[in-house]
Amino acid sequence: MPEEDFVELKFRLYDGTDIGPFRYSPASTVAVLKERIVAEWPKDKKNAPKGANDIKLINAGKILENSKTVGQCKAPFGDLQNGVITMHVVVQPSLAKAKTGNLCAITTLQLLC
Fold first, then answer.
1. Strand pairing partners for 59?
2. pLDDT digits (tens, 9 = 90+) for 45-60
3. Is the dihedral of CA 37, 43, 46, 48 positive or negative?
4. I need a surface site. Which of 18, 31, 73, 81 has the fewest CB within 10 A?
5. Positive or negative CA dihedral for 21, 22, 23, 28?
6. CA distance to 12, 91, 94, 112, per residue, from 108 (Å)
7. Is the pTM of this model over 0.85?
């Protein structure tokens, strides 16, 4: 695969720090990106994901699906050819963990809806 076909990505965390940049094939899936984020997660961060399912990746305002490829998720950026694309990382614990957490908050949320 020619060098120019690879996509360079970095991942912005909740506190403004970045993981990466790394180069990916356009055929790489979002699930692969999430596994890399979990593996590279800084050890000094509090809200560390336990696994790839605890991560949501956002690019161009859209939450990316695990089965999509980098090529499918890459938004057209016009003059930004060969630039680094920043994807935002949101750590969201699995639903089972959230249900066992603060039941009062869940009840309050349901009442407001």
1. 62
2. 888 899 999 999 998 8
3. positive
4. 81
5. negative
6. 31, 22, 20, 6
7. no
